[in-house]
């Protein structure tokens, strides 16, 4: 497994599945796990501290509300961590976004957009990071982008 997709709760899966689907479509192997900085703090420490030795290259962490998971995962590992703000019911994910994005200088989290688009783009960005050292993944990323462009060029009329 080269990407670790973690999330604060099983309830985040409908969002985080979009990261998994993107990685599937780009031929990137990943693992998925519920890990919470709040509810399972020792599991988070174990997960993030052991990730590099287990062959993980990028961690995608999705969480909603007071979303401390991505930042705490980044605190426990030097691997790149991509944060996905899950769209919360109470504040539509604004809380998740601000919790994840405002990291103090010195510990980095790459924050994506709120919700499904952010999760999909986290998968895409993880693949692009891996692609810098993997020609097959780079070819898959370039094919995905070319097909996306061609689909739009082939369907220019929005009313059709
Ligand atoms: N933000 C966090 C963390 C964390 O940051 O450690 N752990 C769980 N959660 C979030 O709580 C929300 C509600 O969770 P439940 O649906 O289980 O009550 C989820 O979006 C989860 O990511």
From TrEMBL:
Its EC number is 5.4.99.18. Keywords: Isomerase, Purine biosynthesis. InterPro entries: PurE_ClassI (IPR033747), PurE_dom (IPR000031), PurE_prokaryotes (IPR024694). Gene3D superfamilies: 3.40.50.1970. Substrate binds at residues 9, 12, 39. Residues 1-152 form the PurE domain. Coiled coil: none annotated. SUPFAM superfamilies: N5-CAIR mutase (phosphoribosylaminoimidazole carboxylase, PurE). Pathway: Purine metabolism; IMP biosynthesis via de novo pathway; 5-amino-1-(5-phospho-D-ribosyl)imidazole-4-carboxylate from 5-amino-1-(5-phospho-D-ribosyl)imidazole (N5-CAIR route): step 2/2. Pfam families: AIRC. SMART domains: AIRC. Catalyzes the conversion of N5-carboxyaminoimidazole ribonucleotide (N5-CAIR) to 4-carboxy-5-aminoimidazole ribonucleotide (CAIR). NCBIfam families: purE. Belongs to the AIR carboxylase family. Class I subfamily. PANTHER family: PHOSPHORIBOSYLAMINOIMIDAZOLE CARBOXYLASE, PHOSPHORIBOSYLAMINOIMIDAZOLE CARBOXYLASE CATALYTIC SUBUNIT. This is N5-carboxyaminoimidazole ribonucleotide mutase.
